[in-house]
Design brief:
The complex is a heterodimer of chains A (118) and B (116). Helices cover 0% and strands 54% of the residues of chain A. With 118 residues, chain A is an all-beta fold. Chain A is globular, with a radius of gyration of 14 Å. Chain B is mainly β and 116 residues long. Chain B contains no helices and 12 strands. Chain B is globular, with a radius of gyration of 14 Å. Chains A and B meet through strand 5 and strand 10 of A and strand 5, strand 6, strand 10 and strand 11 of B.
Amino acid sequence: ETGVTQTPRHLVMGMTNKKSLKCEQHLGHNAMYWYKQSAKKPLELMFVYNFKEQTENNSVPSRFSPECPNSSHLFLHLHTLQPEDSALYLCASSQDLPRGLSYNSPLHFGNGTRLTVT
Amino acid sequence: AQSVTQPDIHITVSEGASLELRCNYSYGATPYLFWYVQSPGQGLQLLLKYFSGDTLVQGIKGFEAEFKRSQSSFNLRKPSVHWSDAAEYFCAVAMLDPGGSYIPTFGRGTSLIVHP
């Protein structure tokens, strides 16, 4: 048990479908992240929520829409995806401090959702 | 630009042999440094981290890493590899971004293969 739970573990969807990925952390952290992991590529940071506010959006296409209703839950809403969006989507959390203060908390990852877009 | 480099895509070692995985970073100040391991079908698990102080840090599963400021390196080592160590290893660096937050940047990963 990692403390960060992602559901579903596997998802196959067509390009016209709408689906959502869910992440829940039980660690009392206040920052949550979505990463995309594709074969032979570095982990790509997609979104960061710090104290429930989105602080990072790394030029992610609008077909990916994050939602963070509280500090324990993070969603990634998917619609009209492309086959190249097939990847492992990893959620992570950390205990972050307000901006300007030192950061010293490593990330805790979930086991990911393996997404296949057909 | 800030970057993290893991020059070895694959490393193959025999069980019981020693291991060193390389990591170099490009950053103007001392960053926060991490090593993570990922087993198939799993998320990333923290092995160890360096923030300050002693430049040789100990982690879980018998791993250690040494921060060398002069070489901008943070190499991961283990004196005797076990078959269960076969996995993907990621070096990560948390650097201050323009927005004032420390966001981890990951290397491409090194795949460790262990021969019996």
